[in-house]
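Model: Ready when you are.
Researcher: Fold this.
Model:
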Amino acid sequence: MGMVTAKYILKRILMVLAGYLVAVLVGLVAVTAIYAALSSLPNAPAYFDVMGVSPIAALAVPPLGMFIYFLTIVVTGAQTLVFALIAEFFALRNALLHMFFAAAAAAGGFFLIWPSTAEEMDAERWADIGIIAAAGLVAGLVYWLIAGRDAGFRRPLSPGQ
């Protein structure tokens, strides 16, 4: 493996990391926006209002915002790393694939934070899972825009090579 290939792999690793960190931030913004929008619907649960205004608390108390950001990284990092490696090794560049995986990673992270029994799976809980997964779709699109559309550890050959 030559120096050019090593540089290319390092560049891909940095792009994956940057894409993930930005996607997590955008995903958290999307969660808030979705809750805020849904809180205006009739019969919306009262906690939707709280979720919609939570960024004010995160901005007023920066350590709280950083805690939420890092907690999200902790609960979604492992599954995201697995997919990122698969995407890089197999040069998977499909936007929908990245969006689907991010939705699954977000929902999986939600289950890690709030595990439940079958009796607790009520309509509000399913709504929360759907909201988190929808925010994951947004995060997956952002990740794809930054790193996923050029996925692949193998450097593409230039014409004539």
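Researcher: Now this one.
Model:
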Amino acid sequence: MTVHTLIALVHDRPGVLHRIVTLLRRRGYNIVSLAVGRSETAGISRLTLAVSIDDATQVVKQLDRLVEVIGVADATAVPTVTRETALLKVRATNDTRDTIAAQALAAGGHVLDLGDDDVIVEITESPEQVEEFVSAMRVFGIAELMRTGRLAMMRGRTPRVLEAPNDYRAQADGAPNEEAA
């Protein structure tokens, strides 16, 4: 199975995420990661969903039928910038603390806290690089791990399907709402 990266624009309302997850669960799709947050437009959120499935065409169609979904696109085969953030609490001793910090810095991470028994590290890189770093830290022992899930943005021009409707853009830009007149 292939992990497909889907990007969706959704209304920022209670229950939207539940409806999306329920739709995927009912059809037996495995969610690899899910990240959602406010977009550039008030009242609209962007969602990045990684789904393990052979063909994402049906998933895109089913999500697009939900009333709360403004638009959805499969970004798997197009150039994207993809990132994931992880926070790790790595077990440390006096002998390993400097090694952990050096490896974190070499991987592009940041040491956020040096404790007596652990080091808290943050890394933001591609999902593959985050996974490599997590694997490297396992030799020291990971006390806690928290990952954001995949965030993705298509390179170049934003596809029309992922643009906010005019009435939402007018509100966000401070322009008068043409429908209100």
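Researcher: Key takeaway?
Model: Helices lie at 16-26, 57-65, 97-106, 127-137, 166-173.
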